[in-house]
Write a structure and sequence with these properties.
This protein has helices at residues 25-30, 89-102, and strands at residues 5-11, 15-21, 33-41, 52-55, 65-76, 81-86. The chain is of the alpha+beta class.
Length: 108
């Protein structure tokens, strides 16, 4: 298990969805609780909101998927199952920018 991998997680109240691991690599290696972002299928005709990044087959997913960057979840690493892919370097940068923007940290 590594940072930027996409795994399946059963989010409380939302069910099973892809989850992008965003914790520091050392935390992922050593700790039992890690940070992830919730992802959900991009529905036909819909577009990404300002706080979302679109992932696709380049990231190991079967279809276009929205990665929601406005809420970081702390989850037990043992609850992640079924590795699905790895986020591309280009989209990693976009995710980081969206996390910073959606939390209002850019003005700090």
């Amino acid at each position: 298990m590594k940072a930027w991998e996409v795994w399946t997680y059963a989010f409380p109240g939302a069910g099973e969805h892809p989850a992008v691991i965003i914790s520091h690599p050392q935390r992922v290696e050593r700790k039992q609780v890690i940070e992830v972002l919730l992802c959900a299928t991009l529905r036909s005709g819909a577009s990404a909101a300002p706080h979302e990044v679109v992932l696709n087959s380049a990231d190991g997913l079967d279809w276009k998927t929205l990665c929601r960057c406005d809420l970081i979840y702390s989850v037990p690493r043992e609850d992640l199952r079924s590795r699905r892919g790895l986020v591309s370097v280009e989209r990693r940068r976009e995710i980081i920018r969206k996390i910073i923007w959606s939390h209002g940290w850019s003005g700090v």
